[in-house]
Amino acid sequence: MRWLLKRSWFWPGAAFMLVVVCAGYLLIPVGGSKAKYGKIHVGMEASDVEDLLGGNVWFDWTEIEWTHDERCEAGRWLRTGTLSWNDEDGNTIQVTFGRSRVTGKSFTPTTVSFQELMKLRIKRSIRALWP
């Protein structure tokens, strides 16, 4: 094993691999918004969509209706309107609801340039490492 450490290519190769791993950590997002958008289906409940998207959720309900089921003596609010969600990169997901069920969805990608997007990701990653 000592012969490997004495090779002229070993230490530059190890340094290069370290740089590649660090750059990948800083630049590649995990759990992107496009994947979350793909998990939203027509007919899903509003609460399920909110749980899937997590934070940064804005509801704009245009109509709220109370329903009561006599069979089980329970009631619930049926909401109609839209939900908007933004991620850190500027991508937007909008979901429309009718009677608390998904009736439509749209995905708007970010308009930020690639260089600015990489700068923002690096800043966020460094801020997360050193609070």
Structural class designation: alpha+beta
How far apart lie the N and C ends? Answer: 40 Å
Percent in helix = 40-55%
The CATH topology is Beta-lactamase Inhibitory Protein, Chain:B, domain 1
In order across it, which strands form the biggest sheet? 1-2-3-4
The figure for the number of domains is 1
Characterize the biggest β-sheet.
Answer: 4 strands, antiparallel
Report Rg: 23 Å
Number of helices: 5
Shape: elongated
State the name of the first-level CATH class: Alpha Beta
- State the low-pLDDT regions, or none: none
Number of DSSP-assigned strands: 4
Report on this model:
The protein is α+β, with helices and mostly antiparallel strands. The protein has one domain (32-129): Beta-lactamase Inhibitory Protein, Chain:B, domain 1. The protein contains 5 helices and 4 strands, in the order H-H-H-H-E-E-E-E-H. The chain has helices at residues 2-5, 10-27, 33-39, 46-53, 114-129, and strands at 57-69, 74-86, 92-98, 101-108. A 4-stranded antiparallel beta sheet has the order 1-2-3-4. A hairpin with a 2-residue loop joins strand 3 (92-98) and strand 4. The longest helix is centred in the N-terminal third of the chain and has 18 residues, at 10-27.
